[in-house]
Design brief:
With 428 residues, this protein is α/β, with parallel strands linked by helices. It folds into 2 domains: 168 residues, Aspartate Aminotransferase, domain 1, CATH 3.90.1150.10; 249 residues, 3-Layer(aba) Sandwich (Aspartate Aminotransferase, domain 2). It contains 14 helices and 16 strands. α8 links the parallel β10 and β11. 49% of the residues are buried. Ligand KE4 binds next to α4.
Length: 428
């Protein structure tokens, strides 16, 4: 494929923007080479600045569940722009989006809109600390919740469960209030609560992990999360930024039967525009300024153009649910990938929940970061490029999930499987 324009634009980008990207996930760091510069998108397709077409399995890292340029979303945004870009004041759309979220997710009685998933998780943690008066938070290795200082923390030394910064600029003082536990390990969580329970404000977790590749929780782990937090007076924060409205209209919590105290959302609720949200029990949310004393604010929170895209997207998902079709398409893709890898003699496993799927280059299905990080990332990189050269745009890291959209078709899934067969043949 000719990517001359892309290379020229990206060369200039690297002079203007750190790493040439406005988010490191896009930089192709895990697969090598240079990212592609895109020009436009429609349905399941992306088109780069050189006119090459790709079948999109990233969907802007999750938001584009309906596919690109869905007519209803496009019309809603066009109509909103004609009225105003932004007021910095209440608008009817904020109520409409809040209503849709509250109706879809029973554990959310009240919700605050923000402009990104990071803002949502950052605010939820501050609220949990303000509500409980406690300092400690618990997260899990392999879970990503945005670039919040207190969550950019790696597991501490084996002796201490307290975290250590995993980014320059995060202070030791911040990291020491974060405890990093092992995902799917109830005993580790029990041990942590036994030692620190009275100081823990909240536990935040991905209900279906997307950020170490797709990893699912065990029933025992889910029970430990809910029981231990309730027993020790800590809040359970379910980070559904990726899974919200993705794996089901009610999010992963509706599939897993877990009732968190707070939920964070993003991605799909903006339909591709910048929207995040955090919400939960009314008695907790009422602590947020100006109803309560926990400060949180945002110039473009609830922006009318962004909320218009989110409202149109959620209404489409509510009124014409695509989830059964997404399940069929995604199961077809998963089966095809597994069979193709097996025929090529390549050790792979898959984990899938609805239209969220990861093909791990590993003989064992990961259950936590320790097992996920044993995947053959260099083989994944070669697979990524072999597929890209066949017009299939996959996540540029083994530790991400791919997403099938409602704009995909069985024929396009079969094209993807055919490309995978050719790609696996090049790997073995
Ligand atoms: P944003 O701030 O990027 O909108 O959301 C942060 C976030 C929070 N929680 C979960 C579970 C998330 O997956 C994310 C962001 N996901 C990454 C992809 N795995 C976004 C891609 C990027 O960082 O550019």
């Amino acid at each position: 494929m000719n990517r001359t324009q892309s290379q020229q634009i990206f060369a200039r980008a690297k002079e203007l923007i750190p790493g040439g990207v406005n988010s490191p996930a896009r930089a192709f760091g895990a697969v090598g080479g240079e990212p592609i510069v895109f020009d436009r998108a429609t349905g399941p397709y992306l088109f780069d600045v050189d006119g090459n077409r790709y079948l999109d399995y990233i969907g802007s890292w999750g938001p584009m569940i309906l596919g690109h340029q869905h007519p209803a979303v496009l019309a809603a945004v066009r109509e909103a722009i004609e009225r105003a870009f932004s007021f910095g004041a209440p608008t009817p759309g904020e109520n409409q989006l809040a209503e849709l979220i509250v109706e879809a997710v029973p554990s959310i009685e009240m919700v605050r809109l923000v402009s990104s998933g990071t803002e949502a998780t950052m605010s939820a943690l501050r609220l949990a600390r303000g509500f409980t008066g406690r300092d400690r938070i618990v997260k899990f290795a392999g879970n990503y919740h945005g670039h919040v200082d207190s969550l950019l923390v790696a597991a501490g030394s084996s002796a201490a469960t307290l975290g250590v910064p995993n980014s320059p600029g995060v202070t030791a003082g911040t990291a020491q209030d974060t405890i990093v536990c092992r995902y799917n390990d109830p005993t580790d969580l029990e041990r942590t609560f036994a030692a620190e329970g009275s100081q823990i404000a909240a536990v935040i977790f991905e209900p279906v992990v997307g950020n170490m590749g797709c990893v699912v929780p065990t029933p025992e782990f889910l029970a430990a999360l809910r029981n231990l937090t309730r027993q020790h007076g800590a809040l359970l924060i379910c980070d559904e930024v990726m899974t919200g409205f993705r794996v089901a209209y009610g999010g992963a919590q509706s599939l897993l039967g877990i009732e968190p105290d707070l939920t964070t959302l993003g991605k799909i609720i903006g339909g591709g525009m910048p929207v995040g949200a955090y919400g939960g029990r009314r008695e907790i949310m009422q602590h947020i300024l100006p109803a309560g004393k926990v400060f949180q604010a945002g110039t473009l929170s609830g922006n009318p153009v962004a909320t218009a895209a989110g409202i149109a997207t959620l209404r489409e998902l509510r009124d014409r649910p695509p989830y059964a079709r997404l399940e069929e398409l995604s199961a077809r893709l998963e089966l095809g990938l597994v069979q193709s890898a097996r025929e090529a003699g390549i050790a792979c496993t898959t984990t899938r929940v609805g239209s969220m799927l990861t093909l791990f280059f590993s003989a064992t299905r990961p259950t936590d970061w320790t097992t996920a990080s044993q995947s053959d990332t260099s083989r994944y990189a070669r697979y990524f490029w072999a597929m890209l050269d066949r017009g299939i745009y996959l996540p540029c890291s083994q530790y991400e999930a791919l997403f099938v959209s409602a704009a995909h078709t069985p024929e396009l899934i079969d094209e993807t499987i055919a490309a995978a067969k050719e790609s696996f043949a090049k790997l073995s």
